[in-house]
Design a protein that fits this description.
10 helices, about 350 residues, 6-stranded parallel β-sheet, binds zinc ion, 2 domains, binds NADPH dihydro-nicotinamide-adenine-dinucleotide phosphate, Rossmann fold, about 25% helix, 16 strands
Length: about 350
């Protein structure tokens, strides 16, 4: 097989590897639509470890099955499938405690492009096919569907982690594709005032389309002051951090009301600690503020639920696609866009018909 990945920290390129072996509960797909993620850039340039050497990147994909294990019940060769970025084996008892993302240890569920080879390749191996794959509906465009596999599930998870309820005021910090889906997820969850922090014009336009009521530019003054001004000094019930630096993260605690919730879905790399200023914590953590950070949920039912939202016309994640490429050879170019992040980029896709 051939895939695009990390040769060693800071160096990406094509990798040749033996074809994956399809176990009894596995399936193998040829890709139909692929997308690189900001997390792939973190893996290539900021993180390190033996598991990130000679590692194929990518965890956002739609595929057509070319091989199916003997124990797979619901899928056949030729099926077109939505492949979630998080694909646990579902065979660990700890899943019964509730967190499939960490079934065999921290973030083990997102084996693609981390502990095992990812999806920017010509043969994608999916474990626990019956539990992880969802059928791609005939009327759902693969490029739209690929936005569900990570961006939509992660952004919506931000709204879940922040416990957004009807009428909550919400601030989403960062409106790249992950934050945009957090805006859409918060709107669907019933947010009232919905503030979005970001500056790229296309992202701002789309944030409004997805339900943002106020746009805040972190380049034009402090986020704290702007959020306080926009909320009559009250702050917000829920904050979702989907971009920015440590200052942004600390500010999330400052703008969160006492009794409110802060959720982090941003990936922090190359830092060793958080030092949240005491004045932001609500009286030295007497303010009943909660904090949760989390990895994107995956698995079959999660994908099927998100697909149903898209099919019902409630959210169109395909609106985030700004750059389209065709063919395997264009993967490096699409990946490079994620590295450089030109201001007109929201999300690139690679289509392989
Ligand atoms: P982008 O780089 O596209 O978006 C980042 C956003 O943050 C932009 O809106 C940017 O604004 C904004 N931003 C930049 N600097 C600041 C600042 N100082 N204060 C506030 N906002 C700021 O990233 P993605 O949407 O692709 O990904 C976001 C994060 O989510 C990444 O770290 C990624 O690794 C992570 N991720 C996490 C997952 C999970 O499971 N938890 C899964 C997938 C991704 P501007 O408009 O000016 O560019
Ligand atoms: Zn990702």
């Amino acid at each position: 097989m051939k895939g695009f990945g990390v040769i060693k920290k800071g160096t990406v390129g094509w990798l040749e590897k033996p074809d994956p072996i399809c176990g009894p509960s596995d399936a193998i797909a040829r890709p139909i639509a692929l997308a690189p993620c900001t997390s792939d850039v973190h893996s290539a340039y900021e993180m390190e470890g033996p598991h990130l050497i000679n590692r194929i990147l990518g965890h956002e994909s739609i595929g057509e099955l070319i091989e199916v294990g003997s124990e797979v019940r619901d899928f056949q060769i030729g099926d077109r499938v939505v492949i979630p970025c998080t694909t646990p084996s579902w065979s660990y008892p700890s899943i019964q405690d509730g967190m499939h993302q960490h079934e065999a240890g921290l973030v083990s569920g997102i084996n693609f492009s981390s502990y095992e080879d990812g999806t920017l390749c010509d043969r994608i191996k999916i474990r626990s096919a019956d539990m992880n794959l969802a059928m791609l509906p005939a009327n759902l465009n693969p490029e739209t569907a690929v936005m569900i596999t990570d961006m939509m599930t992660t952004g919506f998870h931000g709204a879940e982690l922040a416990e957004v309820k009807f009428g909550d005021s919400v601030c989403v910090m960062g409106i790249g594709p992950v934050g945009l889906m957090a805006v859409a997820g918060s709107a669907l969850s019933g947010a009232g005032q919905l503030l979005a922090v970001g500056t790229r014009p296309d992202c701002v336009t789309l944030a409004k389309e997805y339900g943002a009521t106020d746009i805040i530019s972190y380049k034009e003054g402090s986020i704290y002051d702007q959020v306080m001004d926009a909320t009559d000094g009250n702050g917000v019930d829920a904050v979702i951090v989907a971009g920015g630096d440590l200052e942004t993260f600390y500010t999330a605690f400052g703008i969160c009301k006492n009794g409110g919730h802060v959720a982090n879905i941003n990936v922090f790399t190359e830092i060793t600690s958080f030092n949240i200023p005491i004045e932001h914590s609500g009286g030295g953590w007497m303010g009943h503020k909660t904090f949760r950070g989390g990895l994107c949920p995956g698995g079959r039912r999660r994908m099927e639920r998100l697909i149903s939202i898209v099919q019902a016309g409630r959210v169109d994640p395909g609106r985030m696609i700004t750059h389209r490429f065709h063919g395997m050879d264009s993967i490096p170019e699409a990946f490079q866009l994620m590295v450089e992040k030109p201001r007109d980029l929201i999300k690139p896709v690679v289509i392989l018909d």
